[in-house]
Amino acid sequence: MAEEKAIEKKAKVADPVAASIDKATQEMIVRAQELGIDTCFDRAVTLKPCNIGNQGTCCKNCGMGPCRLPLGKGLAEGEEDTRKGICGATPNTIAARNFTRMIAAGAAAHSDHGRSVAEVFLSAARKETDAYQIKDTQKLLDIAPYFNVATTVKSEDGQDLDRDIDEIALEVAEVALREWGKEEGELLYLKRAPQPRYEIWKKLGVLPRNIDREVVDIMHRTHIGVDQDYKNLMKQGTRCALADGWGGSMMATDLQDVLFGTPYPLQSEANLGIMKDDHVNIIIHGHEPVLSEVIVAVSQSQEMIDYAKSKGAKGIQMGGICCTANEILQRHGVPLAGTFLQQELAIVTGACDAMVVDVQCVFQNLANVAKCFHTKLITTHPMAKMEQDNVIHIEFDEHHALEDAKKIVKLAIDNFENRKGKGSFIPQYKSPLIAGFGVESIKYHLGGTWRGDYFTLNDNIINGRIRGIGAVVGCNNVRTRHNEGHITVVKELIKNDVIVLTTGCNAIACAMEGLLTPETAQVYCGPGLAEVCEVVGIPPVLHMGSCVDNSRILLAATEVVRAGGLGKDLSEVPAAGSAPEWMSEKAISIGQYVVASGVYTVFGTTFPTSGAPVFQDYLFKGHEQLYGGMWDFEPDPIKHAHKMIAHIDKKRKALGIDKARERVLMSMEDRQKLSAA
């Protein structure tokens, strides 16, 4: 009997190879199982998802439910869908309410991140903190006009004089913060989109008024007995998503660049093998970089390095998980420890002296795993605490950021001594990478200093060397094999000459696989893309930052339109979006603002509207008629990639560039004429 129970218990843990394609992750899953520590991979085996919830047709928005409306085998053609909740809500209404609530939560998460950055930016502009200064004045001058902030003043004799940079910073900060709750008008950043795209939004009545109002609007209209028209619900869902993508997220990215520096390409490494047994290992995890920026600076100070050596360590090794990782990577080269699903495993190494978390995608089970080791788990955000008694809370305050950071780093160093003699298990897997691509650096690398625009990228799309652009982003999902969807989709795209722009955990997955180096091009790319990468010296997969930095992809696509030759709107560009392993509500908000921006977008793993086929058809086909972009769903990663390629080919045909063009050697005079144009 005891033997049968042991067999039954063994059957309920994850198969490491089936759980992940990553060798380091496989080793750490085995290590955790040997130590009797359950991880998300094991819990995914024992905890099955709700099929009705997966279909999007479970409503729990009042106390009479939950009302569960399973689709079952589906409806025969022409058969009426008679499913109803207690209040009479149809599957379309329920699925649309659930979908828009996901948009509201995702937009709130990203945009509240932006608000936090704006508040710190205001403190810096007011000179209220020594921890933050304006690092990129040029970026400040570039974005100020979008906030209607003048960068020059007229002298008495009519000359344009440069305004004081501190005055500009303060005014930008004040105007930016008002975008969350202003009473009149529309979001200022909407005008950054191509004019035809803005006019579509205006015509359809989806221009966001302010960020907070659009989130509150959704929460009101999805209350029982309010909005019961799935098309009207999605109109507000679109307005809220645009407030995220062309509002809170975009402002977060811009203000972070001004405060912390605009990213430019740099080298680093990725995977759990970046941790060092003889160093103090500090892992930063979450999404907001305002504190982690200071922690990185403090950890690199001679004072802290000397203190670490006094405790027997050779130094301090920083590493990152999730999007805080991408933030400190792209500006400082801090290596990536892993993706969302590897957060528990970083502690299971036994070498993590402190894990510092802020907001979003942080497992509560980290506290339980930390109990098994010496690791100090430190929460830092007032809205993100844990109930377990072994968690330390050091609340971030921008006015005392240096003090907070020093306290955290010292706590980690002091904890290093508690690791002595206990042993550690660090998997010896890591890959080199180049990260830090943004709108500005792509201009430089593809356009050259003499041109400085996106013409070269457009030219290579027009002449067929590059087939098109694939934006592959998003989370990991433990319901599918870790990193397999990400890597398969990306490899299939670059094999077919599609250049890939990536953010978030997809970017980390690509880094772990070694796809973020120029050498990758000769191994995995089609001949056209390989040629471009070799000449320019860039990877075929460009790391563009964290998940809020999807705004960089929107602006890069806007630059493509502005450079000419590939249509007048984002919907005409040979481009497609993808989230192969999505799991968070932020991904739904991102997907909706990308679709509303005119871009075909494919999700993998599962889709939360499959139980309401009429509503899903509206997202998949109706949206294309409205916005020129549409949702699609494909769990098979090869088919997923080829749906994107087929869409790119359709756009190439519409532009008349589906046939190879003769290559013409251009003279310098010809190039100068193009530049002047």
User: How would the global form be characterised?
Assistant: globular
Number of contiguous helices: 28
Distance between the termini: 82 Å
Uncertain spans: 1-9, 661-666
User: Structural class of the helices, strands and pairings?
Assistant: alpha/beta
Percentage of helical residues?
40-55%
* Major beta sheet, strand line-up: 8-7-6-9-10-11
CATH topology of the largest domain: Rossmann fold
Number of strands: 18
Could you walk me through the main structural features you see in this protein, from its secondary elements to its overall organization?
This protein is an alpha/beta fold and 677 residues long. It has four domains: 2-51, no CATH class; 91-260, Substrate Binding Domain Of Dnak, Chain:A, Domain 2, CATH 1.20.1270; 272-419, 3-Layer(aba) Sandwich (Rossmann fold), CATH 3.40.50.2030; 434-676, 3-Layer(aba) Sandwich (Rossmann fold). Helices cover 49% and strands 11% of the residues. It contains 28 helices and 18 strands. The strands form five sheets. A six-stranded parallel beta sheet has the order 8-7-6-9-10-11. α25 links the parallel β16 (575-579) and β17 (600-603). The model is unreliable at 1-9 and 661-666 (pLDDT under 50).
Which properties best describe this structure?
alpha/beta; 4 domains; 28 helices; single chain; Substrate Binding Domain Of Dnak, Chain:A, Domain 2; Rossmann fold; six-stranded parallel β-sheet; 677 residues
Task: Please summarize what this structure is.
By secondary structure, this protein is an alpha/beta fold. It is built from 28 helices and 18 strands. It is globular.
